Amino acid sequence: MTTIKATCPGCGEVELTPEDIELRVCTHAPASYYVFECPMCRTPIQKPADDRVIQLLISGGVKAMVWELPGEVLEIHDGPALTKDDLLDFHLLLEQPNWVEQLFRVAQES
Ligand SMILES: [Zn+2]
User: Fold this and answer.
1) For 47, how many CA atoms within 13 A lie in the half-sphere containing its CB?
2) How far, in Å, from the CA of 30 to the mean position of ligand 1?
3) How many CA atoms lie within 13 A of 39 on its CB side?
4) pLDDT tens sequence across 68-95
5) What's the predicted TM-score (pTM) here?
6) Of 35, 70, 71, 79, which sits 20 to 30 A from 96 (CA to CA)?
7) What is the spatial distance between Cα 56 and Cα 59, in angstroms, rounded to a whole number?
């Protein structure tokens, strides 16, 4: 059976089988990672997986799962941050019977 060597921050080098490792390959390459539970101390460990690591793990028999980064993560948000006052204003707005109309009016002004 193939053994794969990985490193636990607490225990150092540990040996795993392909079944011990979950490889999550992301459509946005820098977000790819693999996870395993340290066989010594049972700590869950997550590490980034670049192309070389992905190749090594797959050639060692680890099954890759593909996941997509939610589109929102890469959106550029350049407006001001939401403040507590904004949240309070919004709360008060929602108590108005015509809050939908008011919300549209505010959205058109900005
Ligand atoms: Zn450990």
Assistant:
1) 16
2) 25
3) 13
4) 999 888 889 888 999 999 999 999 999 9
5) 0.67
6) 79
7) 5
Q: Which helix (H) or strand (E) holds 13?
A: strand 12-16
CA 1 to ligand 1 center in whole angstroms: 22
Distance 106 CA to ligand 1 centre (A): 54
Residues in the chain: 110
List Cα–Cα distances, 50 to 24, 26, 30, in angstroms.
Answer: 11, 10, 7
Please state, in angstroms and rounded to a whole number, the distance separating the CA atoms of residues 60 and 31: 21
Give the environment of ion ligand 1: residues with CB less than 5 A: 8, 10-11, 38, 40-41
Please tell me the distance between residue 21's alpha carbon and the centre of ligand 1 in angstroms. 14
Q: How far is the CA of 64 from the centre of ligand 1 (A)?
A: 23
As given in the structure block, the two tokens for residue 44 are 């869950």
* 75 neighbors 28 (Cβ within 8 angstroms): no
* Ligand 1 centroid distance, CA of 58 (Å): 23
Residue 66 amino acid letter: V
